[in-house]
Automatic annotation (TrEMBL):
Gene Ontology cellular component terms for the protein in this record: cytosol; perinuclear region of cytoplasm
PANTHER family recorded: NACHT DOMAIN-CONTAINING PROTEIN (PTHR24113:SF15), RAN GTPASE-ACTIVATING PROTEIN 1 (PTHR24113)
MF-aspect GO terms: GTPase activator activity; small GTPase binding
A Pfam family assignment: LRR_6
Protein's UniProt name: Uncharacterized protein
Record Gene3D superfamilies: Ribonuclease Inhibitor (3.80.10.10)
InterPro entries in alphabetical order: Leu-rich_rpt (IPR001611), Leu-rich_rpt_Cys-con_subtyp (IPR006553), LRR_dom_sf (IPR032675), RanGap (IPR027038)
Length: 297
């Protein structure tokens, strides 16, 4: 990493009170030095994606008085564990936080439980967390009585099965969700049916389920459920769909608001692809993807 003052100078946006430190090979000691710099004043957003920040670095952030107005904290793909998240959950420095990104860290169900009980983080509207929550962690978040303001919840790649999906579907506290990302899990048809028929999720506008084997039964449930009427984006990349499930989308009477549909790596014939592309039931559909172009691989 370059010297501390140069890193800060390059990443600091004084006008927006933002500090962009992504992809700088920053570890705990580096971050400790950064937050002690006189250049750091009243930061509201800090971006630390793709670094090597662990629990000690998180504690340095929490101890920095210039972070007391922080609203956005992005720690995507770092080394934060349950202990680091537990410290966040108790720190008044996090009281104003509205967006927390902790995907691709070392968070398990224990971290999720601390998060679910935190009154400090009750203002969150956007939460990304992982990658070892499993069903127990997903259930803790779904049943949280403090995380009730969430508009966006991303639990991708957390080894979640139907049990976790059922907990989300049955939640009474996630009714404000408009975006739900469950990519790279192990949710099958029962879980997909529960999500599709959930009254709690009736405000969803974006549902992404890449690499979940939900099959035709799961897709048919989504295509037929009144609770999915507000969907504008549906991502079903490699979800074991055949013509049967794809035809249900084309014939759906509830997906009229759908604008973007991803069906890459499924077993759908050209005939049914055309049915979807020309369906009068999907009047707003402007983007449908059945296969990746070479540039997207």
């Amino acid at each position: 990493m370059a010297d501390t003052e140069s890193i800060i100078k390059e990443g600091l946006n004084i006008e927006n009170s933002e500090l962009d430190l992504r992809e700088r090979e920053i570890g705990d000691e580096d971050l400790k030095n950064i937050v002690q710099s006189d250049q750091i004043k009243d930061i509201t957003a800090i971006f630390l994606e793709f670094n090597e920040v662990g629990d000690e670095g998180v504690q340095a952030l929490l101890d920095c008085k210039e972070m007391k107005n922080l609203t956005v904290l992005n720690l995507f793909k770092n080394q934060v564990t349950d202990a680091g998240l537990a410290a966040m959950c108790k720190s008044k420095t996090m009281l104003n936080l509205s967006e927390l990104i902790l995907s691709d860290n070392k968070i398990t169900a224990e971290g999720a439980k601390a998060l679910a009980k935190s009154t400090i983080l009750g203002n969150l509207v956007s939460l990304w967390v992982g990658d070892g929550l499993e069903d127990e962690g997903a259930t803790a978040i779904a049943e949280s009585e403090t995380l009730t303001r969430l508009n966006l919840l991303s639990l991708y790649r957390n080894n979640i099965s139907d049990e976790g999906a059922l907990a989300i579907a049955r939640s009474k506290n996630l009714s404000k969700l408009t975006e739900l990302n469950l990519n790279w899990n192990y949710i099958e048809s029962d879980g997909a049916v529960a999500l599709a028929e959930s009254e709690t999720l009736k405000n969803l506008q974006q549902l992404t389920m890449t690499y979940n084997p939900i099959g035709d039964r799961g897709v048919e449930a989504i295509a037929k459920s009144e609770c999915m009427r507000n969907l504008t984006l549906l991502d079903l990349y490699e979800t074991e769909i055949t013509d049967q499930g794809a035809r249900a989308i084309a014939e759906s009477k509830v997906l009229s608001n759908l604008e973007t549909l991803i069906l890459v790596h499924n077993d759908i014939s050209e005939e049914v692809q055309e049915l979807i592309q020309n369906s009068e039931n999907l009047p707003k559909l402007s983007k449908v993807v059945f296969r990746l172009t070479p540039a997207e691989h």
